[in-house]
Give the backbone structure.
Amino acid sequence: MSTHTGRRRYLTKEDGPAVLAAAGTTMSLTEAAAALGVGEATAYRQARAGTFPIKPIMFGNRYRFPTAEVRRLLGLPVEPTAVAS
């Protein structure tokens, strides 16, 4: 479950499915880490070292990751299917 410290909301691996469901075309490093079940500090360390499993798109000093690549790495369909109501 997510933890709250001060005003910042930290994502955890339990947030992964919700993050994927709400993701747009790209996601932040924090969102990608939650979706992959990796801690945020580990994800930043891997991204800086070039060992994160997905190549980031850099916008200034911000890491962005294609949602399709995160889904592909998890073995999920690239385009989420609509749920019948």
Observations:
- Residues 3-73 form one domain.
- Strands lie at 3-5, 8-10, 26-28, 57-59, 62-66.
- The chain has a mean pLDDT of 81.
